[in-house]
């Protein structure tokens, strides 16, 4: 498929949020679409009330353009797990959203064109559609207290945070829970709503911290930090030392440690520790591993040290997780 080819044929087969008819306490639709010469798309849409959660995985041989249009005002919670994307629309162009970043997008409707850039052929994103009245009901009159929502209150479309936010282990875990919950009926609706509110709280907290710190890292400074985080994401079981990591991303150790803490809100050691605990929780809950097996898998030679770290992170012993 030549660069710039359109994926519009996929849109015609997908149900947009405004057309999603909720017939039960919660509803789910699954799409698996293959297009010759283009790639493959798998999309699961979950809905409760006015809210629609779309979880999409796209396999592409090379970058491509996605055409879409929307009607009415909404706030989109966008979590890009892998790949990159750049959106242009009738509204001002937005900065590219890189893999492992997230943000809130205020959409006032209209035509949009999104360039999808896969990471090793893969593009994965979760988008949560919140109609504007629903979003305002959640914030109530306190919306005026959040200075970073000024563009939203002024009716200006675009990302609500000037700089995209780093995907933290906490955000990743909630997205994982959304994807793997097996309940049905009213329990599923309550679970979905609780997790959407948890994700929104995490997003707003990160945005507030970024606003308070007035952090405006230039792109040339941010990219090495993003690269360092990706290396840690890929090699969390055996992470490089800070000296090795600094050499790989081309900055000195001081700038790496200082910039990482300012940008991602945690130290390099703390980030790796959180990653290990997130993976450990998944192994214990969904893979049926023992505490000893999990400790070894996440890089702890002594299971007691793992147990202590797990309790510091989650407040319970790993053996109590399923109780």
From TrEMBL:
Q: Name the SUPFAM superfamilies on file.
A: Homeodomain-like
Record key words, sorted: DNA-binding, Transcription, Transcription regulation
Q: What is this protein called?
A: AraC-type DNA-binding protein
Domain of life (superkingdom): Bacteria
- The organism's taxonomic lineage, starting at the top: Bacteria, Pseudomonadati, Bacteroidota, Cytophagia, Cytophagales
Q: Where is the HTH araC/xylS-type domain?
A: 226-323
Question: What GO molecular function annotations does the UniProt record carry, in alphabetical order?
Answer: DNA-binding transcription factor activity; sequence-specific DNA binding
Please verify whether the record's keywords include Transferase.
Answer: no
Q: Which InterPro entries match?
A: Homeodomain-like_sf (IPR009057), HTH_AraC (IPR018060), HTH_AraC-typ_CS (IPR018062), PchR_regulatory_protein (IPR053142), Tscrpt_reg_AraC-type_HTH (IPR020449)
Task: Report the source organism.
Answer: Catalinimonas alkaloidigena
Q: Name one Pfam family in it.
A: HTH_18
PANTHER family per record: REGULATORY PROTEIN PCHR (PTHR47893)
